[in-house]
Design a protein that fits this description.
The structure is a homodimer. The first copy, chain A, has about 260 residues and is α/β, with parallel strands linked by helices. Chain A has 8 helices and 14 strands. Chain A has an 8-stranded mixed beta sheet, with helices on both faces. Chain A has a two-stranded antiparallel ribbon with strand order 3-4. At the A-B interface, α4 and β5 of A face α4 and β5 of B.
Chain lengths: ~260, ~260
């Protein structure tokens, strides 16, 4: 039987506010067994860019990352957000190690080709070095991963944190029994989007089709669930969509299997 | 017999200019055996602070680090400078891992007490986790260390890179045959400070006393050499003071034994 590994993805909003960050890290520290954290930081990057007089340009929710913006996200994601989390986790007794995809070459990506949009220094994940991550985990180390990868040619690349968490989960699925948790602003997939008490507890391939027909799963939730099922197909045990404040009870939220 | 470990300390000026950085990293990549890099980044931090409208205050060459400045150095040292180096080294086939003292708790420090000056979030090294560093090195990983430590209570602390390199060397001296190399703007300790061809090739405790009497070692070089002899006393095999551009030939420079 494979050992359980919990991968938590948490977005910028949670990690950028001291109060919600502290609550999150306390819950994360309390998770038993092997674990790994992937974080965002987009709001801080936008705020820092603005302070530096650099305009943030987004296309379909993705940041255009020119050379100047790459410097900003490298500072904010790889430095400020990542190392703040690491220092806090160490104080909570978690032997955290902050990493980007370049560190120990854990996540190699390819700069996105220019089709209609030039996203600049943005990477699509090509390869996860599961052995390197597994050896850290086995040594009792808890990787804390910032949303940056590298191209193997010397350049860092801005990379979507949701995708990094998903690819990391898939890459580690042959070694561990991987439970991938996406922290979200709502309690999970909701039957009534304004009511956190209407969480759909479990979604399978079969029920997913009917939830779409019923109009319960719509819009931005569709790509999230498509990605979740891709992870399941690649051997991930389950994908959980839940509220960051509910990490102390992972039986809540929506479980995709 | 212990394995050789080369620890290179390189200052901000070298790592902040693309050309000198590339030359340095090529030379670093070519060093055989176990190795570790400690870098600075003060000039970039000062420039970034200035862009953000934050005034840099120095006392005796040390940066006063209030909460705002701590954010800047965390971004610049831990993010921008560190991760840029890591991505470049990966492209050169070096399995680099960027770290601060908080990562894997490798360097714990104590916030400097306020005597006449309040340096703010500045740390003095208390403990180097030599076992953690040794296990990374034995696994073929090359630590790249930014000048930040932590207090174990959740806070990062700005820490002098020369001191971090020295303390890391001392900490690892019981495990490895440590050669500690300080890159400097000159070719070593010079008999004529304006002539790089007058390097004093070797300094021992005995010759150090006469070099001071002769007035060859003066000013800022005295604390550097005092620290070097402290490292030797703690078991470091030798301390080398040389030019960053001379890393391809470590037999040059001043060897302190």
């Amino acid at each position: 039987m494979k050992d359980k590994l919990t991968i938590i993805k948490v977005g910028g909003k949670i990690v950028e506010e001291p109060q919600s960050l502290n609550a999150l890290l306390n819950d994360f520290a309390a998770i038993d067994g092997f674990k790994l954290l992937v974080h965002g930081g987009g709001r801080s990057a936008t705020a820092m860019a603005s302070q530096l007089g650099i305009e943030t340009k987004m296309v379909d929710g993705r940041r255009i990352t020119d050379a100047e913006m790459l410097r900003v996200v490298t500072m904010v994601y790889g430095g400020l957000v990542n190392k703040t989390i690491v220092a806090r986790l160490q104080a909570l007794g978690v032997d955290a190690l902050g990493m980007t995809g370049a560190d120990m070459n854990i996540i190699l990506s390819k700069r996105r080709e220019v089709k209609t949009v030039d996203y600049g220094f943005v990477g699509d994940v090509e390869k996860v070095n599961a052995q390197a991550l597994a050896s850290l985990l086995r040594a009792g180390i808890v990787p804390v991963i910032a949303p940056l990868t590298h191209d193997g040619l010397g350049s860092l690349l801005n990379t979507n944190a949701d995708t990094m968490a998903g690819e990391t989960a898939k890459g580690l699925a042959s070694i561990f029994d991987v439970h991938l948790v996406y922290c979200f602003e709502k309690a999970g997939v909701l039957r009534d989007e304004n009511d956190d008490n209407t969480v759909v507890g479990e979604i399978t391939r079969q029920s997913y089709a009917s939830l779409r027909e019923e109009g319960i799963v719509t819009g931005g939730m569709i790509p999230k669930l498509d990605n979740a099922f891709d992870a399941i197909d690649a051997g991930v045990a389950e994908v959980i969509i839940t509220k960051a404040s509910a990490l102390d009870n992972l039986s809540a939220g929506t479980h995709i299997k």
